TrEMBL record:
This is Demethylmenaquinone methyltransferase. Keywords: Magnesium, Metal-binding, Methyltransferase, Plasmid, Transferase. Its cofactor is Mg(2+). The lineage of its organism: Bacteria, Pseudomonadati, Pseudomonadota, Alphaproteobacteria, Hyphomicrobiales. GO terms for biological process: methylation. The keyword Metal-binding applies. Mg(2+) binds at D117. Substrate binds at G94, D95, V96, L97, R116. Gene3D superfamilies: Ribonuclease E inhibitor RraA/RraA-like. One of its GO terms (molecular function) is methyltransferase activity.
Length: 224
């Protein structure tokens, strides 16, 4: 027997809003270069972005019955995160299910399998990050767990973790760390703004990054 888990300890709206201000790359760096999902997972359209709590679901390869269950029970703003065995040769999600997600206010989909109807998904502007685009159909046979920890993109995703995605990729921020990560991300952005201002004032990259001593210690000799 497989029991459907609906309850998630979700982050607050304030925590999600604070994290949503930053790119996945900034968040990855700010939390000690942790949390980046595999670069193989890409958005269907480079303009797509998502940020919200993970509603996790385990699917069998080439089977989307549990994905449909997840769509049925996910709440507005949730990001459905599908673990399906990193199987590229299946189109487990398309424009019909995207319309179902939009009707419910679901925030996006992250899946380690394939999707299809990519043109329609772009037109719908529903954020989809997937391992592949594939036209091959799926069955509806095998039950799986919802809202258990899953491995997706080489990262363990817990229900309620904050998933953030943009054109560059995806990152996961633990719910318990959201406030601290937001502070660290802001500090990083402030520092980078200072670097850019210094460049515009005429300083070099080596000067701004204090690299002269480091390069000399490593044996770099600058010839005239």
């Amino acid at each position: 027997m497989i029991k459907l888990k609906q309850k998630i300890d979700r982050p607050t709206k304030e925590e999600i809003a604070a994290i949503s201000r930053f790119s996945p790359a900034t968040l990855h760096e700010a939390q000690g270069r942790r949390g980046a999902l595999s670069s193989r997972l890409k958005p269907i359209d480079y303009r797509m972005k998502l940020c919200g709590p993970a509603f996790t679901v385990k699917c069998a390869p080439r089977d989307n019955i549990m994905l449909q269950v997840a769509i049925n029970y996910a709440q507005p703003g949730d990001i459905i995160v599908v673990s399906a065995g990193e199987y590229e040769e299946a189109g487990s999600f398309g424009d019909v299910l995207a319309n179902a997600c939009l009707a419910k206010g679901i925030g996006g989909l992250v899946t380690d399998t394939g999707v299809r109807d990519s043109l329609q998904l772009r037109e719908l502007c529903f954020p989809v990050f997937s391992l592949s685009v594939c036209i091959k159909g799926t069955v509806k046979e095998t039950l799986g767990a919802t809202n258990d920890p899953v491995m997706v993109g080489d990262e363990i995703i817990y229900p309620g973790d904050i998933i953030v995605g943009d054109a560059d990729g995806l990152v996961v921020v633990r719910k318990s760390e959201a406030r601290e990560v937001a502070k660290l991300a802001q500090a990083r952005e402030d520092a980078e703004a200072g670097y850019i201002a210094a460049y515009k004032s005429g300083k070099t990259v080596v000067e701004v990054s204090n690299l002269e001593g480091v390069l000399r210690a490593k044996g770099l000799v600058v010839e005239d």
